[in-house]
Amino acid sequence: MRYFLALFAVTCVLVVVVAGRRGDASRRPPIEIWNDMDRQLKLRPQAVAGHPGWEDGRTSRRWVAGTVPRLEPVKVGGKEIHAFEDHPVVTGRETGKTNYVELNPLPVTEKFMARGKERYEIYCTPCHGPTGDGNGVLKKYGHGAIASLTDELRVKHPDGYLFHVIQAGSPSGLMGPYGAQVDPEDRWAIVAYVRALQLARLGKPEDLPEPMRASLK
Ligand code: HEC
After folding, report:
1. Residue of the CA atom closest to atom 20 of ligand 1
2. Cα(167)–Cα(123) distance, integer angstroms
3. Which among 151, 150, 139, 141 has a CA at the least distance from the CA of 197?
4. Nearest CA to 164 among 179, 150, 180?
5. Stretch 23-42: mean pLDDT, rounded?
6. Rounded to the nearest whole angstrom, what is the distance from the C-alpha of residue 132 to the centroid of ligand 1?
7. Residues 47-103: pLDDT tens digits?
8. Model confidence band, residue 21 (pLDDT cutoffs 50, 70, 90)
9. Per-residue pLDDT for 17 more than 90?
10. Cα 197–chain centre separation
11. Euclidean distance between CA atoms 15 and 20, whole angstroms
12. Which of 22, 25, 57, 173 is deepest in the core (most CB within 10 A)?
């Protein structure tokens, strides 16, 4: 028993000595007791040379002939913008910055708006409701705290932020991301439609052209 206690004490001290230094900043290389995980033969993905097993030496295989990209590039003014580029159309942010773009970068046409309405009704109505007030069918089933999209707060959000919420979900995570289901072009179409819902909800009689005002009830 005495030996055990002595050994136990020595082990405790050793553990504290070794583990207690973890996380400390040091300029010296760390002691590696088992270094086989730190230093191992490996191939870098996408390297163009170095693989002994393939004739061309590439570490990643080329795609099979006839492969099509999953995400079509977005066409803006005759240019194709791909999902990996740092361009507002696919990020919702100003190029080279993290600021959200203030305005929808795609031209808002009648067709675009119709597409936005269709996508909104598929992906957003269940929670946010057909008018965007947050009273979708899921509320009846007990989903609480659904944001109203026609609140002043959401009216003030830049278009790029709405785009971002559709892509990545709400900051608190209460609303999940829809980026996988709704591609960039459709996200902008939904943003345009959400703006239309806000206008419809918050518009004043003076916003209507003069001749139409008389028809208001
Ligand atoms: C499963 C339910 C659900 C669906 C579907 C859904 N949302 Fe939400 N959304 C929420 C909830 C809940 C919140 C409140 C989240 C919070 O408070 O963090 C929210 C918040 C938001 C906000 C406000 C975020 C903020 O920071 O103020 C926006 C904008 C929004 N949703 C847009 C959309 C759009 C556009 C769609 C359709 C693509 C959509 N949502 C689909 C549940 C949903």
Report:
1. 147
2. 12
3. 150
4. 179
5. 81
6. 10
7. 888 888 888 889 998 889 988 777 788 988 889 998 889 999 999 999 999 999 999
8. low
9. no
10. 23
11. 8
12. 57
Name the phi and psi angles at 88, rounded to 5.
-50, -35
- Reported residue count of the chain is 217
Q: Sign of the C-alpha dihedral, residues 91, 96, 98, 104? A: negative
> Ligand 1 pocket by C-beta < 6 Å: which residues?
123-124, 126-128, 138, 145-147, 149, 154, 162, 165-166, 170-172, 174-175, 178, 182, 190, 194
Q: How far is residue 216's CA from residue 197's CA, in Å, rounded to a whole number?
A: 18
Architecture of domain 108-205: Orthogonal Bundle (1.10)
> Which tokens belong to 128?
């946010």
Quick one: pLDDT at residue 192? 97
